[in-house]
Description:
The protein has one domain (37-330).
Amino acid sequence: MSLTVEARFDRASERAGSRDASSATRSLGTRVYLPACAITAAAAALIAIGWSTRWGGADFTGTLTSLRVVVIGPATLVILSLLLIAERLWPAQRRPIFARGYRHDVLYTILNATLTLPFVAALSLSFAEVVRHRLHWLTFPRVGWLPHGLAIAVIFVAMDGCNWAAHLANHRVQALWRFHELHHSQEDMSVLTVFRTHPFVHIVYLVALVPGVVLIANGGLSTTLLVAYAGEVALAHSNLRLSFGPLGRILVSPNYHRIHHRLEGRQDVNLGFALTIWDQLFKTAVMPTRDTVAIATGLPGRPLRVEHGAPRPHHLAVFVAQLVAPFRPLDDLDDVSNRGADARTFSP
Ligand SMILES: [Zn+2]
Ligand SMILES: [Zn+2]
C-alpha cells in the first residue's frame, strides 16, 4: 500500500517537474528566440572542441592571417577601392557619396575586419578538425590519376555549390533566416554590402569547407583563388549596371544578384555566390532585364530595424539592434515606428 502511494507521489512529482521544466522553457521562449540560441550554443561547442584539440595541430595564427589576406588584404582592398570608384561612374542607382546605407555598411566592414575574422578562423579550424578526425571516412586519399588542376577546379565548383545550398537553407529555415535577413535589409546596395552579415551566419557556411577537407590530399585552394572568389562576390553586390553579357549565364553579375535583394518579389532566387549554374540547375535563376537593373532592394515591411527607419540614422543603436535581433522572440514586434515607416521615407 505504502509503495503504491509512494509510486503515485513519484509520478505526480515527475509530472509537476516536467510541467515546471516546460513552463520554464515556454517562459524563456517568450524572452528569446530559442532556435537562434541553440545555433549559437552549437557554434560554442564546436569551438570548444577545436580549442581542446589545439585546432587539430593547425596553425591558428597562420589561418587567421590567410583569412585576413582574403577579406581585407592588399589585393582585396584594391578590388574594393576600384569597385567603389566604378560605382560612382556607372551606378545602378545614383546616390550621395556618403549615403546612409554606405555609412552603415562601414560598421559591418569594421566588425568583419576585427571580431568576425578570428571567430570564423576558430569555427573553420574546429569544423575541419571534426570532419578530419571524427568523420575521417569522409576524406579521400590521394587519387593518383586526378590532375592537380582538376582537383582544384572540383573543390572550387563544389565549394560554390555548398555556398549555394547553405544560402538556400538560410532562406528556407526560419532559424537561419533570422541571421541572414540582416544581409537583405540593405536599401542602398554597394560593394560594402558584402560585409553586411551577422557573425553567426558563418556557421551555416562551414559546409563550404567540406569539399576542401574531403579532397585535401589532392590539393587546396590558393589564397589568390580565394581572393578572386571574394572579389567576385563583392562585385556582385556593387551598385553597378553590369551584367557580363554572355558570361552572365555562368558568372553572378551585379544585375543578377540585385534581383536576389529585390524589395518586391521572391528573394529565394539567384542564390549563387560566384556561379549561376546552381540556380539554373535547380530552377531558382531569374535573369536580369532592363527593368531589374535598378530595382529597389530591402525587406518588405522592415521586420528588422534599419538605418533608414527614422529621420536620423542612429547608426550605432541600429547596428546593435540588428545584431541582437535574431535572438529576439518572433512576436517581439515593438519596433512599430521602424516597421511602419515607408521604405523610402528617410534618405539619404
Ligand atoms: Zn539571401
Ligand atoms: Zn547579397
